[in-house]
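Appendix B: a complete holo record

For completeness, this appendix reproduces one full record from the ligand-bound portion of the collection. The bound molecule is flavin mononucleotide. The inputs are the chain sequence and the ligand SMILES; the output is the full three-dimensional arrangement of the complex, encoded as structure tokens. No fields have been trimmed.
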Amino acid sequence: MSVYFSPTGTTRKVVEGIVAGMRAENPVTIDATKKAHRRGSAHQFKHELAVLAVPVYYGRVPEAATKYFDSLTGDNTPAVIVVVYGNRAYDDALIELYDIAVRRGFVPVAAGAFIGEHSYSTEILPAAAGRPDMKDLEAAHAFGDAVREKLLRCGSVREALLTGIPGNRPYIEPEGLYRLREIRKASRFTPQTDESLCTRCNRCIEACPEDAIDQLDILKTDNRECIMCFACIKICPVNARRMAEPAFFLRVKEIFERCRERKEPEWYL
Ligand SMILES: Cc1cc2nc3c(=O)[nH]c(=O)nc-3n(C[C@H](O)[C@H](O)[C@H](O)COP(=O)(O)O)c2cc1C
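The structure of the chain with flavin mononucleotide bound, as generated:
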């Protein structure tokens, strides 16, 4: 069973690659991206293998996903911990998701950090554009296969426990990135719809994890709900959803310029 939060779909693609590599029969998926799916009673796992996956936001597990993942219940359930990041760094997201899993009764048996196109990547300012690509998906498949091999080899779930995961405890707050979040909090800007281009297809409304776009008036976005995941921008077929905030893009440009070198997937078994 895999559970993921994936506003722009790269985490979902990586999870699909891993699950294919595991060769599980009838794999079940919980897409916890939309707020409605994160409400109510969260899944109680038994002895199936769980894949828990989130994108990295500000070097951590996205706030919008933390509460939900912290409400899942494992019963010594083996878990594969996965984070997907936009080629900057995954910082303490992997260890944080690992800790959530342990706290909730899972036994982490493997962990992986993969790369996905940065949510803020554009044609003019690309970052990890097109990723996960074929090479990444082959790596995800190989990782899934290696997890399967490990579990077949180990006599018990406890024996398969993964220790020595990279990261800091307490988690380090990446200062520069938090500045980006603070800029956002202070000015409360958010993507907007260009009325002259919008065809009212409503895909942005459906894609928004937090239901921040007004269902009756697509021109209104609730900036207290928007998590700046850019799902609405990426899904729009006519580029009518835009982010027009120079301060934001200046900061993003600085970050992208410092992490141009291609990072490769890493995993721990
Ligand atoms: C609010 C926000 C913060 C992000 N922070 C980071 C980060 O700290 N490091 C990084 O490499 N990528 C970061 N990213 C990029 C995402 O981790 C990356 O694009 C990921 O592939 C998105 O996953 P998804 O397609 O499943 O939504 C951030 C993206 C957003 C929207």
